[in-house]
Amino acid sequence: MIVKSQEISFKKKDFFLNKVIVIYGENQDLINDLNGQIISLCEGEGEGKNKNSKVIFEDDILKKPDDIINYYLNGSLFEENKNITIIKNCSDKILEIINSVKNNIQNTLIIINSEILQKSSKLRQFSEYDKASICIPCYQETKFDIKKFLIQQIQINKLELSENQIETILNFSSLKRSKIKEAVEKINIYKSTKKITDKIIEEICTENDLKKNDEIIDILLSKNEKNINDFISNMSNYEKNFIEIIIILRSFIMKILDIQKIDKKLSMDEKLERYKPPIFWKDKDRIKNILKIWSSKNLEKLLINLNIIETNFKRSELAPDTQFFYFLTQNLSKVAFKNANNFI
């Protein structure tokens, strides 16, 4: 059974109990959030006793498969306080073990986490069609999705934020639920002691993660081959995966193109002043500098290619890092512009 990630908050705990829940996709941040939602919903079921979640990895299970099989098939099966099991980094290799225990999951559940599963994946086919399973694909969320999630969190926490403050938090989030929750948690700390002003929101949202986003934009849009090669070599320092970097770039490029569409008779400074929601002063200089290097036409082409490479991540059998590094060198360095066969 396939269930959309947006539908999880509307489900009752009985929907998940006694099931194998396969949550997969490129959006690991969303996967972690859904793990938490499902566990919160299902814990405490049965005689008032709380369930505890137990996190294990596929590699560990494959080394000692009898441990989990015995856990579900032998005497411990009937324990009322049986743990919810989360199995991470899963592949088709886990399926044989899951098939051996799926009919003996009583008053609890197993959550399986995986990255992208191709249509040919046996684990994906199991999750979509087996009656004992629930399948939840996790795609990258749009700004609309994340804004909806943020507004939900604002309502739950009884916060009063302006549209400008909401936009600031969205820009900080990199379209990640965990960042939204982090910001809301910090706002709650301030809420009890002082009024939530724009300045407080900016202080909360201009920390290391946002600075890393700015640095990524500056490097990748610099057309400086050395800087881009250094970025590739040290990408782990930025704690971003390939999809997150594409989202950061795409969001910023779309903003620039929207600004460019404002009345052509206006100067760039006037356009930046008129743009809504308001642009941070530091971003105004960044945008003007990027437009000295990039034409609107080339930014539009780059935006198209960002969408193409994101689609290829999902379809191609090539490793994402190989695809992404090739994309960077072919699209963003000065060398790329000397080759007529390249995208831009």
What are the key terms here?
alpha/beta; 3 domains; Zinc Finger, Delta Prime, domain 3; 5 strands; disordered C terminus; single chain; about 350 residues; Rossmann fold
Let me know the average pLDDT: 81
The CATH topology name of the largest domain reads: Rossmann fold
Which structural class do you get from the secondary structure elements? alpha/beta
- The count of domains is 3
Q: How is this structure best described in words?
A:
By secondary structure, the protein is an alpha/beta fold. It folds into 3 domains: 5-137, 3-Layer(aba) Sandwich (Rossmann fold), CATH 3.40.50.300; 143-206; 209-338, Zinc Finger, Delta Prime, domain 3 (Up-down Bundle). It is built from 16 helices and 5 strands. It has helices at 28-42, 58-63, 65-73, 95-101, 122-129, 143-156, 163-173, 177-191, 198-205, 208-220, 225-233, 242-260, 268-274, 281-293, 296-315, 320-331; strands at residues 20-24, 53-57, 84-88, 110-114, 133-137. It has a 5-stranded parallel beta sheet, with helices on both faces. α7 (163-173) packs parallel to α9 and α8 (177-191) packs across α9. The chain is globular. The two termini are 43 Å apart. 27% of the residues are buried. The model is unreliable at 45-50 and 334-344 (pLDDT under 50).
Layout of secondary structure:
Layout: E1 20-24, H1 28-42, E2 53-57, H2 58-63, H3 65-73, E3 84-88, H4 95-101, E4 110-114, H5 122-129, E5 133-137, H6 143-156, H7 163-173, H8 177-191, H9 198-205, H10 208-220, H11 225-233, H12 242-260, H13 268-274, H14 281-293, H15 296-315, H16 320-331
Parallel strand pairs: 1-4, 1-5, 2-3, 3-4
